[in-house]
Amino acid sequence: MKFGKVDNPEHIDFTIPADHPDTAVVLAHTQTKQPLKVYVGCAKWNRQDLKNFYPRGTKDELAYYSTQFNCIEMNATFYRIFPAEQYQKWYDKTPDNFRFFPKMTNEVSHLRRLNDAVYPTVDRYLEATSNLKDKLGTIFLQMHNNFGPKNWDRVVRFVEYWPKEFSLAVEFRHTDWFNEETVAQELFHLLEENGIANVLVDTAGRRDLMHMRLTNNEAFVRYVGANHPSDYDRIDQWVERLDDWKGKGLENIHFFVHQNLELESPLISARFIEKLNGKLETDLIIPKTLHKIDGKLF
């Protein structure tokens, strides 16, 4: 994942910013007194990307991956809408507690950029994706870097069209969505009123995307490590912040680990899950890897 990559990550201040003041308000108003649900995963299950993760002789990568992680951020669906039977195969290969968090096709987000022609594609995408049934998590819409606030009317129409039975999270990347206060507040309130998650992206070169503003009771976090020792300190900071949000009413954590070079994603995930289990009293499986952190084999 090259977005937000910098040549010298040691020069970046990775301190997690203070919460947006409205985050605590949102959590207080949206909590349902349900048990905390936590899903942690990578972006892909491809053996070539996740080196030193699959045991020798592994024949089915997804089947093995789903024994180690309880979810996947599905980048593959960004590039095409798969046939219905493919979603059924993925469903059948994974345990009952596994969840898929598929990315919306780029025809909607990047090629047509939420114009009026996207809606038949949205319908086709949802019809196919619904074959994941109870294993379908939040669908993830990622907009292009140059999709800015001048497209506000398109965003409003899309949000109003979106079927409420499908959970949605949106990642806006143009700097003006967050750097202009009036624009930011309008966007946050639109998402909040429609129960849509506001994606948080922790990456080196775009610290403005750490706006720390939740818009529903879902922390949808895309963590991008820099293949640098500071990655582990950053992960520890996230455990502390998520614990704080849990105390304020957070009930849904969806956390996806990326790397500029993906081979270390399972390693960082193992560290994160171990710390999360200890701090938040969760019981997630710690993925097995062939590396050591602080003297422990993962």
Helix tally equals 10
CATH topology: TIM Barrel
Number of strands: 11
What is the helical fraction, as a range of percent? 25-40%
What's the CATH H-level superfamily name?
Answer: Protein of unknown function UPF0759
Order of helices and strands, N to C?
HEHEHEHHEHEHHEEEHEHEE
Estimate the global geometry from the Cα principal axes. globular
The parts where pLDDT drops under 50 for at least 5 residues are: 291-298
**Content of β-strand:** 15-25%
Query: Which CATH class is shown?
Result: Alpha Beta
Distance between termini? 23 Å
> Architecture, CATH level 2?
Alpha-Beta Barrel
Largest sheet: 6 strands, parallel
Class from helix and strand fractions = alpha/beta
Radius of gyration: 18 Å
Q: Provide the number of structural domains.
A: 1
Largest beta sheet: strand ordering: 3-2-1-9-8-7
Q: Averaged pLDDT, please?
A: 93
Pfam families: DUF72 (PF01904)
InterPro entries: DUF72 (IPR002763), UPF0759_sf (IPR036520)
